[in-house]
């Protein structure tokens, strides 16, 4: 059995849900307090024992490469000024085995993963999506690797979601729980309507796959949205060899939309050693103002002014 050494991080999307911020900046580089979201994903990979990471990029994604590259001028300046803590933060993103390839057209997650075929070769590998930041005592990617070492098969991370939200996810139809939190799967369904969803167990952005998935991705027809769907390819793979679903019991932070990103920023900020005390006090003060209506009253003139400006622009 070959060791799981490689990870793929798709990062070629337009990030339209964060416009206008993502007009000229990759969504993956928007910081949570002081750390870009993609760095959380890379750190999870490294903590899980991954040795080589391929990031699938696209147009206007060069800042991702720059972030993980060295910056000799900045490093020399910090070293000269004796700012060792900041220097350590800068240097921790360099020297990693990171590789980059472009997805020429946005044809879906399955198509993005297919760009990694030459990089992966004949080895098992992990796919890590940047919209989900996972927190647990054992990194989720490592949990999938441990599952692969026991089952010698693909393992997909899932988590229970509200039933009305199943149309936002790939959903599994679980057949049996072979051990605690590990399921055999009848089928994988991409974004089913709630009335058609076979369960509330949703795929949450971590996949451990065997290389046979590439042959399927090369032949499969476009699915939902006219795109090559990774979920559809996994369902085909499941018909010829076992694909297990691993239920994640840790904390999932969804940074794929504005509200989820704001919640994650607050939760991360409450743990950040430099800002946690001030943020906690600010939230307490804010709660008091919300109770009295002071915030709504103070913001009302500004909102009206913005609306007037919008009308003039149109």
Kindly list the characteristics that best describe this protein.
alpha/beta, 12 helices, Spore Coat Polysaccharide Biosynthesis Protein SpsA, Chain A, 2 domains, about 325 residues, globular, single chain
Q: Which residues sit in consecutive blocks of at least 5 with pLDDT less than 50?
A: 301-314
Helix content class: 25-40%
The 3D shape can be described as globular
Going by CATH, what is the homologous superfamily of the largest domain?
Spore Coat Polysaccharide Biosynthesis Protein SpsA, Chain A
Give a structural overview.
- This protein is α/β, with parallel strands linked by helices.
- It folds into 2 domains: 6-257, Alpha-Beta Complex (Spore Coat Polysaccharide Biosynthesis Protein SpsA, Chain A); 276-313, no CATH class.
- Helix content is 39%, strand content 23%.
- The protein contains 12 helices and 13 strands.
- The chain has a 9-stranded mixed sheet with strand order 5-4-1-6-11-8-12-10-9. Strands 2-3 form a two-stranded antiparallel ribbon.
- A hairpin with a 2-residue loop joins strand 2 (31-32) and strand 3 (35-36).
- Helix 3 (72-80) packs antiparallel against helix 4 (84-91).
- It is globular, with a radius of gyration of 22 Å.
- The protein starts with 5 loop residues before the first strand and ends with a helix.
């Amino acid at each position: 059995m070959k060791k799981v050494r490689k990870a793929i991080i798709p990062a070629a999307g337009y990030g339209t849900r964060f416009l206008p911020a993502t007009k000229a900046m990759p969504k993956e580089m928007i910081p949570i307090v002081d750390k870009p979201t993609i760095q959380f994903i890379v750190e999870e990979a490294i903590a899980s024992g991954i040795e080589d990471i391929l990031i699938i990029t696209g147009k206007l994604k060069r800042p991702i490469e720059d972030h993980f590259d060295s910056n000799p001028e900045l490093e020399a300046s910090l070293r000269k000024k004796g700012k060792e803590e900041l220097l350590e933060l800068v240097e921790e993103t360099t020297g990693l085995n990171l590789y980059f390839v472009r997805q020429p057209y946005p044809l879906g997650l399955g198509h993005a993963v297919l760009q990694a075929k030459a990089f992966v070769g004949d080895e098992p590998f992990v796919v890590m999506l940047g919209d989900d930041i996972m927190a647990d005592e054992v990194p989720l990617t490592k949990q999938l690797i441990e599952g692969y070492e026991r089952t010698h098969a693909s393992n997909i991370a899932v988590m229970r979601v509200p039933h009305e939200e199943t149309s936002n996810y790939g959903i599994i139809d679980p057949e049996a729980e072979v051990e605690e939190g590990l399921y055999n799967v009848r089928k994988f369904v991409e974004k089913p309507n709630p009335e058609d969803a076979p369960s509330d167990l949703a795929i949450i952005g971590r996949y451990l796959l065997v290389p046979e998935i590439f042959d399927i991705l090369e032949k499969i027809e476009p699915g939902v949205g006219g795109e090559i769907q990774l979920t559809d390819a996994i369902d085909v793979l499941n018909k010829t060899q076992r694909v297990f679903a691993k239920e994640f019991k840790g904390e999932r932070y969804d940074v794929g939309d504005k509200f989820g990103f704001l919640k994650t920023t607050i939760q991360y900020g409450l743990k950040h050693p430099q800002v946690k005390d001030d943020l906690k006090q600010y939230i307490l003060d804010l709660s008091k103002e919300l109770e009295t209506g002071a915030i709504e009253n103070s913001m009302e003139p500004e909102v009206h002014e913005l609306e007037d400006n919008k009308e003039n622009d149109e």
